[in-house]
Specification:
There is one protein chain. The chain has four helices and 14 strands. The protein is α+β, with helices and mostly antiparallel strands and about 240 residues long. Strands 1, 3, 4, 5, 6, 9, 10, 11, 12, 13 and 14 form an eleven-stranded antiparallel sheet that branches. A three-stranded antiparallel sheet has the order 2-7-8. The radius of gyration is 24 Å and the shape is elongated. Keywords: Signal. This is PEP-CTERM protein-sorting domain-containing protein.
Length: about 240
């Protein structure tokens, strides 16, 4: 009998845990990016402009398979429960009825790098410039920061369409233009570039994200209370 009661209580806790996703479309919920990739196409004319200033794209460290129609892709660093490990932590609020997508907090971090050969007759920079370990804080702004080298925003993202959220498959698709940031332009001008490039369209980006529902505090509490009660009941029966 005690095992039967314990099974019922544990089953209740499990039911609370798994039933929440079934109702996510009924109201606004909080979700988190837990993985994905960033696919990129560079604009040929923009690459010519960079080359004229002294930067020639040499190679791209692909860390993911590009989406159809794209040339390069960077992997999104998955979410980690270990706070000491670099990972993506971005969360957002989404209402499936109104299609309202509201960034809340956190970062989106990517692996991979871009490598440019430097014409040192035009730019006072090392022979090769690496831009990589890209990171963004979408709830703050749409700047993409190079954490591998300069520490500067390199791209500013221009939204092309509302996020396409698929709750059934737990995915989000994002589409942007990548524009040269003011900070990157200033960096090149300071190194000797003959003209600023702020706002120059460098390419197009498609972000494919995997998402997970962030449990509400009340749901987590219910699960813990049910599990705690089950354990306490089991201990009492063992004593008896």
């Amino acid at each position: 009998m005690r095992y039967h009661l314990l099974s019922i209580l544990l089953g209740l806790a499990t039911a609370v845990a798994v039933s929440t996703p079934l109702n996510v479309q009924a109201q606004s919920k909080i979700y988190q990016f837990v993985g994905g990739k960033e696919s990129v196409n560079f604009d040929a004319e923009a690459l010519d402009v960079l080359k004229s200033l002294g930067l020639t794209l040499a190679s791209v460290e692909n860390t993911a398979v590009p989406a159809p129609g794209y040339t390069y892709a960077f992997d999104v660093i998955p979410t980690s429960a270990n706070s000491s490990v670099q990972s993506s932590t971005f969360t957002f609020n989404y209402d499936d009825a109104t299609k309202e997508f509201i960034p809340i907090s956190g970062t989106v971090d990517l692996t991979g790098s871009l490598f440019f050969n430097v014409d040192r007759t035009k730019l006072a920079l090392p022979p090769q410039l690496e831009l990589g370990d890209l990171s963004a804080q979408p709830a703050v702004d749409l700047d993409v920061i190079d954490k591998a080298n300069t520490g500067l925003p390199i791209f500013t993202l221009e939204v092309l369409a509302p996020p396409n959220v698929d709750l059934e498959n737990r995915t989000v698709t994002l589409n942007f233009n990548a524009l040269a940031s003011q900070e990157f332009s200033d960096f090149l001008v300071a190194a000797g570039a003959s003209q600023p490039i702020a706002g120059l369209k460098l390419g197009e980006i498609q972000g494919d994200r995997n998402i997970a529902l962030v449990p509400e505090p009340g749901t987590v509490l219910a699960i813990l209370m049910a599990a705690s009660s089950a354990l306490a009941l089991g201990k009492r029966h063992r004593i008896m």
